[in-house]
Write a structure and sequence with these properties.
134 residues, alpha+beta
């Protein structure tokens, strides 16, 4: 019995060590795959679709938030106010992992109008993370 428990603990420890040894580029790829596979469950005001695209050579992830909002001044003002709050919430819920940002991965997040023009672009990197979380 003790031997079985020891074997199981050993296997668990090896799996944990393997997981923790992933480099930032591997984590970037996994994040993009996971994000896109769960995007259908994403809920946020005015957002109709969200997708992630990874750029391994640039250490960058692009997040796109498509909306049903028409491109006009009133909606742009609303987006400029609400989008940073949405990103802060996503960071706090680990939907945008601080760990990746701290490892040098940059997130370029776009809040888009119904015609795919940009309302707001927010860059999340080591320098901007603290400001965004205020």
């Amino acid at each position: 019995m003790i031997r079985k428990v020891s074997q199981i603990l050993c296997v668990v420890m090896m799996v944990l060590m393997f997981i923790s040894c992933k480099n930032a580029k591997q984590k970037l790829q996994e994040y993009v795959t996971t994000y896109n596979s769960t995007a259908a469950n994403f809920k946020a005001e005015d957002v109709t679709l969200t997708t992630a695209r990874g750029y391994i050579n640039d250490d960058k992830i692009e997040l796109r938030f498509e909306t049903n909002l028409e491109q006009n001044a009133a909606n742009k003002t609303k987006a400029e106010s609400s989008f940073p709050k949405l990103l802060k919430e996503m960071i706090n819920k680990d939907q945008i992992p601080k760990e990746l940002v701290e490892e040098g991965i940059q997130f370029d997040a776009y809040f888009l109008a119904d015609d795919n023009t940009v309302f707001v672009k927010q860059v999340i990197n080591k320098e901007s993370l603290a400001e965004l979380l205020k």
